Amino acid sequence: MVEDKEVKDFFEFLISNRAADDYTNSLQDYVKAAKKNAQWKEQYMTYERIQAYAYDNGKEAGIAEGISQGTWQKAVEAATELLKEGDSPEKIARCIGLPLEQVLELQKQITININQ
Question: CA triplet 111, 72, 74: central angle to 5 degrees?
């Protein structure tokens, strides 16, 4: 039916997805790259969606505890300054109202920054 070998190879590639020459080999490479890109995009978007849910849940939990976003940030800044001055994490957590785990994490970050 089709006598041109290149056209015949192209149609064979479309039907069977088997490459027969350089052109169809390059097409097959493009198809593989596009599939890989689509898979990566799906994984990335899933990750972003999970992060957005986690952020929203954390924000709601903070609001439920009566701590607004700005108040939380100010508390973290105050705890950081008090840690730099040498106050104990337990005292800071008790006085400022941050969880002790959060204050200990801030202390680790300050120690890492000082050692760098």
Answer: 70
Q: How far is Cα 67 from Cα 56, in angstroms, rounded to an integer?
A: 14
- 3-state secondary structure string across the chain: CCCCHHHHHHHHHHHHCCCCCHHHHHHHHHHHHHHHHHHHHHHHHHHHHHHHHHHHHHHHHHHHCCCCHHHHHHHHHHHHHHHHCCCCHHHHHHHHCCCHHHHHHHHHHHHHHHHC
Q: What is the pLDDT of residues 16-64, one digit of tens each?
A: 888 888 888 898 999 899 989 999 999 999 999 999 888 888 777 766 5
Nearest to 23 by CA among 3, 1, 4: 4
